[in-house]
Amino acid sequence: MMGPPFAPFGPARTVPFFRGLRARIAATVGLLVGGLCWILLYLAFLASRFSWFQNLAVVLTTVLLVPAVVLVMWVLWGISVGRRFRRAYWDAPFP
């Protein structure tokens, strides 16, 4: 016999509590490696065209921008997990 013709909903439905974690870990690694590669390739091939001040500005912008994107991504994930945790544990009736 096959399963029910409808998808379960409510408390019986199992949803991964930490959904999106794998994608965010992969994005974090990709962003950090990509930012480091960008800095190395920029300094190796494009830095000779600009002054040291402009090169410093490009490197500092990259060093500040990549972690800011990673930080925002993880903060938003943490907020969503906190909301799921609250609904699952604190809003449940006390036995």
In words, what does this structure look like?
- This protein has 95 residues and is mainly α.
- It has one domain.
- Helix content is 68%, strand content 0%.
- The chain has helices at residues 21-46, 52-90.
- α1 (21-46) runs antiparallel to α2.
- The chain starts with 20 loop residues before the first helix and ends in a 5-residue tail after the last helix.
C-alpha end-to-end distance: 36 Å
- The Cα radius of gyration reads 22 Å
Number of helices: 2
The profile of the biggest β sheet is: none
Number of domains: 1
Overall 3D form: elongated
Give the beta-strand count: 0
- List the secondary-structure elements in sequence, H or E: HH
Which residues sit in consecutive blocks of at least 5 with pLDDT less than 50?
A: none
Mean pLDDT: 85
Strand portion: under 5%
Which bin fits the share of residues in helices? 55-70%
User: Helix- and strand-based class?
Assistant: mainly alpha
Task: Describe this protein with a few key phrases.
95 residues, mainly alpha
Give a short summary of the structure.
The protein is mainly alpha-helical and 95 residues long. It contains two helices and no strands. The protein has helices at residues 21-46, 52-90.
How do the helices and strands line up, and which of them pair or pack?
Layout: H1 21-46, H2 52-90
